[in-house]
Amino acid sequence: MEIRAPVKLDKKTKNLVNRIHEGEIAIINHQDIDEIAANSLVNKKVLAIINCQQSISGRYPNLGPSILEKAKIHIYDVQQGDLFTKLNDGDMITLQDEKVILNGDVIATLEKLTLDKINNLLETAEKNIESELEKFIDNTLTYAHKEKYFILGNLEIPTIKTLLYNKQVLVVVRGQNYREDLSAIMPYIKELKPILIGVDGGGDALLEFGLIPDIIIGDMDSVSDECLTSCREIIVHAYPNGDAPGLDRIQGLNLTATVFPAPGTSEDIAMLLAYDQGADLIVAVGTHSNMIDFLEKGRKGMASTFLVRLKVGSKLIDARGVSKLYKSTLKMKYIMWLFVAALIPIIITIFISQPLVNILRLLFIRFRILLGI
């Protein structure tokens, strides 16, 4: 099979999906492609993916490649060659016989991930999960000791303009199934009107549903300019030493922001902020909630997430999976019963209304005349 198309390159997949277009080849540098990245690439309808890392390393059973294969998107792992130094956005390449050809020259050799190869790699990864879990626990305990002040009250929470006291707060991360879960809780959002906090790209997730975020919080690396200019308040997640690379982008847009120095993830500090400001309830969409999530995130231990959930647990509701919990289909028997129920008042009205009875009698007589009986 020969594939010829232009390329787009980025070592961060979440940045690439904001630039790539349908029918292009994605050049990525993403070890263990996760579900979120895979779904983003599927939505962009890329023609093929060339990964300069291992799409499945065997550390744990990541499901990204399976999602891509199911969507009929060709996946290749680079075996030899440095594509990031030899290619630029827009270059037209040819994929032939597991080789990358540019202007007639072979610049890289590839291995195509077929369904059988993906399944074999996932089987190997399943066998390694216990070893990975042991490392995960050790790292979590180490980081938990370092970050214990997360729940001991020693973290300085900044003052914000948005009032959260005694209000319900919806924290949205653009994680797995965020669209389905947001759709499932839209009646809740419309009725109770919670304060909307978008964690980086979670702000754009809210915009997808016609909702304007009250607060955007994060390092500002995966949220659109449109979202930043439309939201009501911006909080930049900084390193514990106060360094905030995302602040340059905010200032470049002539916007103002509050800086929040803290370890951990942006979704952690979003929950901590809501809890500290006296939120009555915190509803989370798309956040990390299981071991595969944490392994895909890639940060050792993800201890801060555990510590934060310990602290805010009494006020936290995880909406993840709501769409699956309430997913159902309208069965034909229910439609028939609805039809019968709707007919009952019509029939009763006919029998108690004399004019309608007379009309029915006339129609019956005319029917007999037409049939000659």
Automatic annotation (TrEMBL):
An annotated GO BP: thiamine diphosphate biosynthetic process
Any coiled-coil regions, as ranges: none
Keyword list, A-Z: ATP-binding, Kinase, Membrane, Nucleotide-binding, Transferase, Transmembrane, Transmembrane helix
Transmembrane segments: 334-353
Pfam short name (any one): SteA-like_C
A GO term, aspect molecular function: ATP binding
Domain SteA-like C-terminal residues, every copy: 320-370
Gene3D superfamilies according to UniProt: Thiamin pyrophosphokinase, catalytic domain (3.40.50.10240)
Presence of keyword Transmembrane helix: yes
Record NCBIfam families: division_SteA
Name the record gives this protein: Uncharacterized membrane-anchored protein
Source organism of this protein record: Anaerovirgula multivorans
